[in-house]
């Protein structure tokens, strides 16, 4: 086809021959046609896909084509070359393990017939280089994968894969670049173009993508040009023009008009409470925009449906015309009465406007004027003026004065007293203002009656009651309150007064007492008496390790009774044994407390000096030498040094002995123990430098890594600096010389690896942020540790100088964690102020006990400032929180949570015998925090006198207050804590096993179950053992004791059978053979027969070997050893001298070489010991003399080779051998592969110079490539 321009009509619709502009189009300024220019790529033929249905373009169905005289004959590939039938495939549905998975990638196919292709076709099948280049460019721009396939009829199929949005964009570009393009036009008036374009061109881009066309708007520089041009595939251009036409048609139905009306008429336009405007908008479906009073404009804008707009404009004109002759009058009204005239939300003047159609203008506060203006019809102005004066004088005010302390008496509980004094308050406003004034506002009669009643009540209160202040130092306020408010409540009840104690945070020393005059005087006198006593009282704590408490108390309380007799005013409180606490409290007269404190401190110092303890590492193989026969050696050391030496528990992996006594004696005992060990073996110590920051990683997981190194290298001891020493890098390795050297190398390698993979960083922070960063119950730091598992987060100690967070871990995770914390701290430094409403009746919960709850919230949320309203600000609910945004929001959430608990709270009374309170009280704070409840114990010394029969005794009554579900949970927890005592009968012969060596076993039992176990002394011959503690813990302890008893009873008979002993004689020369290398043989025999074999030491010079075990097993073991000795007696043994330097080579790594030679020649080779006189002498034994001699020859030959090599190594430096270069890989050529066939059958996907299309490893929509 030549490069010409033709006019193309739209496809016929509804029986017509095409689409043409008509008179109806011209009415809205629309005129459009289509022009078919030369395709942009120069091709001579092509056609778009099938036009879209209902404006939605189709991508896979061909559209009707415009035939050309030179068009080739088109054959349908699917008809002329039918596809062979597919074999049936049985599909197996396999349910995915995690349910259906939605794919992120979609694939779409676009097909172009030969006539639709814009590119000039080649002469042979597969020539697609030009189209492939365009596809590759589009794929690179859109991030999709595009593949092409050409059929024999020259139709082109394009597959697009990628994300949905990218595929849509690529399809639009492909339709423009690969398909024949035409131009269409439509005329659109200028006022509609903005809606077509949209904000920042969003509507225009949406149209272009939807219809795969390019839409060009007229240039602003061409005022008379209203033509919009659309360029794209023919069918899509037609659909786009129809879409634009429909949009413009809808826009033409809307209208916006303005009308200018004087601002003085706006009240009538609006109507009372904007009733007129609302009526117009709902009736005509329009929007009326009236300028605000502050605006200088007087233009009203009406927009909406055209007919409705015109109707509203007409009504507004009629309204303005009807108000041309309005009149106005003015009157003076005191400003204090203006608000009565206005009413709530201007309801008063709206009511006058509705009744008289007269507008009342009230001056603003800024105008400071008393003049009221009325505008309207002259016949109605008089009526309106009457209504104005009636509303202004319908309300009066009055003030009643009172003393500040009388306020709560006037109001009463929940306003009950005020309600009784002034019964009808519906039309009254009564405010209690600061300064002792009651402000009353309302109708005159009711105001006068209320004022009279309040004045009479004030006079009565002044006559009968009194309010006085007593000054008490703030630090003594909590003693006036007493435990759980017991003392202050007693003062209130006894004297019928109200006592107000200020919050500790305010620092005030004034306590106010209010009530009857006689009661106030008595209460003040009682408070002064308490203060005088408290000023002479003192409380001191002594830190004494719990293990010394029993010694301080003495047998049957001997010492503590003595102190109580000597210092009668002092109360001595030791913590319960179940509670792990070291604090002993002294309270009483100053002088006596100081004296007793000095006496106990001195005694504690003596106990510390005589109970200093340290540990010493001893290799297990030397335990028997340390202990000695029947404990002779260790007992001797104990007597000489006056210390206690405790061995580790049986089966414990720890190889440390604990030495207890005075420090000098302990050091002397350790020196003696080390001396014995050093004499037994060549023990050396070596230090290695390892950075301190790596220590934590090496010692993590219970020293597992260090224990592995110790076990691997002969059980050496590796000693790190104490965890409190953050500066030392010295690590000590102690053990045999060779083992220490190998362990040192392994430790250095492990430490180097840990250091390379470990990063350390710190973040400075403020002290008040620490608790917030940790979170409630560690919630925030747990999240951080879960996000960065390799990072160890160390928060600073209490000292202000160390306010830095340390991070240790992998470099990448440390950097990420540091960035996260820095971002949090940055947010915490930004201060905000927020508010939360809290019902005044709950304020007391937050501010009592020195604002304990507020302080707790502040500490947990970065030190935010929480301000509750003053107590005299009745009805005020707003609580202010100032601090960083995160902390403030967290504090707000916590306050709302507490209020929610208070709204649903209940109070129950739980009877717990008074004697158990002491053991439960230490757990009370933990229960309060865990369940969020208040737990109150009766005050010390509470009497049960006057208690009703069957009721809970006051001394036993424990109250729990909180949310109902939490109260029940706290009750159950308290019941579980009530100590119980149970007994169990244990045979006397089992008592010693239950106690264990030095009481170790029974201590472990008590610690594991948090109970006290009382075992009677052996002199009483009593089998009953008492266990005391919480019910659950006691049951668990009894179960453990029962299990141990069953094990002991079951093993009694077995122990007797297993103790059978056999002694027999074996010559000394065979003892070492029975033991084997490193005791391997004797261990193997013992394990196989389940017996214990005792071989005498070499220094004992004894030939007797003992076997202990079951009689049958012992006899079998004896028979095996005797048979082994008989074999050894019949063996040939020869001695040969081999250079000791050759011995390591002969033995090999882990004895492999020696074992191989023994197996090969069927001989036994015994190497010389460390203490043998001749270190070169090797003994070779075997059943065959030939085998022994052959083995000797082999060993001599190996020795000779070794010595020759040794001589050569010392003579010169061995030359360096460079490794030979690796041969080049052999080239593989494949022939007959599918891709080597003719390109007509397998068309190329692009030319050699074409850019590579976007692809992925998935192999495309036709599957994974197999080459």
Automatic annotation (TrEMBL):
PROSITE patterns attached to this UniProt entry: KH_TYPE_1
InterPro entries named in the record: KH_dom, KH_dom_type_1, KH_dom_type_1_sf, KH_Vigilin_N
Region (Disordered): 1232-1267
Top-rank lineage group of the source organism: Eukaryota
Chain ranges of the K Homology domain: 180-249, 253-321, 325-393, 394-459, 464-532, 536-605, 610-678, 682-752, 755-826, 830-900, 904-979, 980-1046, 1058-1126, 1130-1200
UniProt-annotated location(s): Cytoplasm
Residue runs in coiled coils: 444-471, 659-686, 1031-1058
Pfam families assigned: KH_1, KH_Vigilin
SUPFAM superfamilies, per the entry: Eukaryotic type KH-domain (KH-domain type I)
One MF term in the entry's GO annotations: mRNA binding
Compositional bias segments (type: Low complexity): 1243-1259
Keyword Repeat attributed: yes
UniProt KW keywords: Coiled coil, Cytoplasm, Repeat, RNA-binding
PANTHER family, alphabetized: DODECA-SATELLITE-BINDING PROTEIN 1, ISOFORM A (PTHR10627:SF31), SCP160 (PTHR10627)
Protein name, as recorded: Vigilin 1
The species this protein was found in: Panagrellus redivivus (Microworm)
Phylogenetic classification of the source organism: Eukaryota, Metazoa, Ecdysozoa, Nematoda, Chromadorea
């Amino acid at each position: 086809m030549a490069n010409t321009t033709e006019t193309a009509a739209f496809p016929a619709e509804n029986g017509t021959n095409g689409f043409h502009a008509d008179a109806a189009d011209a009415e809205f300024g629309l005129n459009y046609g289509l022009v078919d220019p030369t395709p942009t790529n120069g091709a001579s033929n092509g056609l778009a896909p099938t036009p879209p249905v209902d404006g939605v373009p189709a991508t896979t169905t061909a559209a009707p084509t415009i035939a050309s005289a030179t068009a080739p004959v088109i054959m349908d590939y699917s008809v002329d070359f039918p596809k062979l039938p597919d074999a049936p495939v049985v599909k197996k549905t396999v349910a995915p393990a995690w349910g259906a998975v939605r794919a992120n990638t979609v694939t779409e196919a676009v097909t172009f017939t030969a006539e639709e292709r814009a590119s000039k076709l080649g002469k042979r099948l597969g020539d697609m280089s030009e189209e492939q280049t365009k596809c590759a460019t589009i794929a690179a721009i859109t991030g999709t994968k595009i593949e092409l396939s050409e059929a024999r009829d020259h139709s082109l199929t394009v597959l697009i894969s990628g994300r949905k949005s990218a595929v849509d964009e690529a399809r639009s570009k492909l339709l423009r670049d690969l398909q024949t393009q035409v131009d269409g036009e439509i005329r659109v008036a200028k006022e509609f173009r903005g809606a077509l374009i949209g904000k920042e061109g969003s509507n225009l881009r949406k149209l272009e993508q939807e219809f795969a066309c390019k839409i060009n708007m007229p240039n602003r520089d061409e005022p008379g040009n209203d033509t919009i041009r659309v360029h794209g595939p023919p069918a899509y251009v037609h659909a786009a023009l129809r879409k634009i036409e429909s949009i413009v048609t809808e826009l033409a139905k809307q209208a916006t008009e303005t009308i200018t009306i004087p601002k003085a008429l706006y009240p009538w336009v609006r109507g009372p409470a904007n009733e007129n405007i609302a009526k117009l908008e709902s009736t005509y479906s329009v929007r009326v925009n009236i300028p605000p009073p502050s605006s200088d404009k007087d233009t009203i804008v009406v927009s909406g449906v055209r007919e409705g707009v015109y109707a509203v404009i007409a009504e507004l004109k009629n309204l303005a015309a009807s108000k041309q002759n309005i009149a106005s009058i003015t009157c003076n009204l005191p400003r204090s009465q203006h608000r009565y005239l206005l009413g709530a939300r201007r309801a008063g003047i709206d009511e006058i406007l509705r009744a008289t159609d007269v507008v009342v203008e009230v001056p603003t506060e800024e105008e400071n004027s008393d003049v009221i203006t009325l505008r309207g019809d002259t016949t109605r102005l008089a009526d309106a003026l009457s209504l104005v004066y009636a509303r202004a004088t319908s309300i009066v005010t009055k003030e009643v004065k009172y003393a500040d302390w009388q306020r709560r008496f006037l109001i009463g509980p929940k306003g009950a007293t005020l309600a009784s004094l002034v019964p009808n308050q519906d039309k009254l406003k009564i405010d209690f203002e600061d300064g002792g004034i009651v402000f009353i506002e309302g109708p005159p009669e009711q105001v006068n009656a209320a004022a009279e009643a309040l004045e009479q009540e004030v006079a009565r209160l002044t006559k009968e009651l009194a309010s006085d202040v007593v000054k008490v130092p703030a630090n003594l306020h909590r003693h006036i309150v007493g435990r759980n408010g017991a003392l202050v409540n007693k003062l209130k009840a006894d004297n019928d007064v109200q006592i107000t104690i200020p919050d500790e945070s305010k620092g005030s020393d004034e306590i106010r007492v209010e009530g009857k005059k006689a009661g106030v005087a008595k209460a003040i006198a009682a408070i002064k008496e308490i203060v005088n006593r408290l000023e002479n009282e003192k409380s001191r704590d002594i830190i004494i390790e719990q293990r010394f408490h029993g010694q301080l108390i003495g047998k049957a309380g001997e010492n503590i009774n003595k102190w109580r007799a000597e210092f009668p005013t002092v109360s001595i409180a030791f913590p319960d044994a179940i509670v792990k606490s070291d604090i002993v409290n002294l309270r009483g007269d100053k002088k006596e407390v100081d004296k007793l404190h000095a006496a106990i401190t001195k005694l504690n110092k003596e106990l510390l000096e005589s109970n200093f303890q340290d540990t010493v590492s001893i290799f297990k193989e030397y335990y028997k030498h340390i202990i000695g026969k029947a404990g002779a050696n260790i007992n001797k050391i104990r007597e000489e040094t006056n210390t206690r030496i405790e061995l580790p528990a049986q089966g414990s992996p720890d190889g440390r002995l604990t030495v207890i006594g005075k420090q000098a004696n302990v050091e002397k005992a350790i020196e003696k123990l080390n001396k014995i060990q050093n004499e037994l073996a060549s023990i050396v110590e070596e230090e290695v430098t390892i950075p301190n920051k790596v220590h934590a990683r090496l010692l993590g997981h219970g020293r597992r890594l260090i224990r592995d190194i110790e076990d691997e290298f002969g059980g050496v001891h590796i000693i790190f600096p104490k965890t409190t020493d953050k500066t030392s890098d010295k690590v000590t390795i102690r053990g045999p010389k060779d083992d220490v050297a190998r362990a040192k190398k392994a430790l250095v390698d492990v430490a180097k690896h840990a250091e390379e993979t470990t990063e350390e960083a710190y973040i400075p922070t403020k002290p008040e942020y620490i608790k917030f960063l940790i979170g409630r119950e560690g919630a925030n730091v747990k999240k951080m540790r879960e996000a960065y598992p390799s990072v160890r987060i160390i928060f600073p100690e209490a000292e202000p100088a160390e306010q830095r967070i340390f991070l240790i871990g992998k470099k990448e995770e440390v950097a990420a964690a540091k960035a996260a914390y820095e971002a949090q701290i940055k947010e915490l430094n930004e201060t905000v102020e927020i508010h939360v409403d809290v019902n005044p009746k709950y304020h007391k919960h937050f501010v009592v006990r020195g604002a304990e709850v507020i302080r707790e919230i502040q500490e947990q949320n970065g030190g935010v400032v929480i301000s509750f309203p003053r107590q005299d600000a009745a009805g005020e609910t707003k609580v202010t929180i100032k601090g960083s945004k995160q902390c403030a929001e967290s504090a707000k959430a916590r306050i709302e949570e507490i209020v929610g608990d208070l709204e649903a709270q209940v109070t129950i009374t739980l009877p717990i015998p008074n004697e158990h309170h002491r053991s439960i009280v230490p757990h009370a704070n933990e229960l309060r925090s865990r369940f969020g409840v208040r737990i109150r114990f009766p005050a010390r010394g509470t009497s049960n006198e006057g208690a009703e029969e069957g009721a809970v005794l006051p001394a036993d009554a424990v109250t729990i207050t909180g949310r109902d579900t939490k109260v029940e949970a706290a009750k159950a927890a308290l019941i579980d804590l009530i100590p119980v005592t149970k007994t169990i009968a244990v045979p006397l012969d089992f008592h010693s096993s239950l106690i264990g060596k030095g009481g170790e076993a029974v201590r472990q039992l008590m610690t594991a179950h948090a109970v006290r176990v009382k075992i009677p002394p052996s002199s009483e011959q009593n089998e009953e053992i008492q266990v005391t503690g919480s019910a659950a813990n006691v049951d668990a302890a009894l179960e453990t004791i029962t299990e141990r008893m069953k094990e002991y009873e079951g093993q009694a008979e077995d122990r007797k059978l297993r103790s059978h002993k056999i002694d027999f004689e074996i010559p000394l020369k065979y003892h070492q053979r029975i033991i084997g290398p490193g005791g391997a043989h004797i261990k193997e025999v013992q394990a196989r027969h389940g017996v214990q074999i005792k071989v005498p030491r070499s220094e004992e010079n004894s030939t007797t070997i003992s076997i202990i075990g079951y009689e049958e097993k012992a006899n079998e073991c004896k028979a095996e050893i005797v048979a082994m000795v008989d074999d050894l007696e019949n063996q040939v043994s020869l001695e040969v001298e081999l250079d000791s330097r050759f011995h390591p080579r002969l033995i090999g790594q882990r004895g492999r070489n020696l074992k191989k030679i023994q197996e090969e020649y069927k001989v036994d080779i015994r190497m010389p010991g460390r203490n043998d006189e001749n270190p070169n002498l090797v003994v070779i034994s075997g059943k065959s003399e030939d085998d022994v001699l052959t083995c000797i020859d082999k060993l001599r030959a190996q020795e000779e080779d070794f010595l020759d090599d040794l001589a050569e190594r010392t003579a010169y430096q061995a030359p360096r051998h460079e490794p030979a270069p690796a041969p080049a890989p052999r080239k593989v050529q494949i022939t007959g592969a599918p891709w080597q066939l003719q390109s007509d059958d397998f068309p190329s996907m692009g030319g050699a110079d074409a850019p590579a299309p976007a692809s992925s490893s998935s192999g495309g929509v036709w599957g994974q490539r197999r080459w």
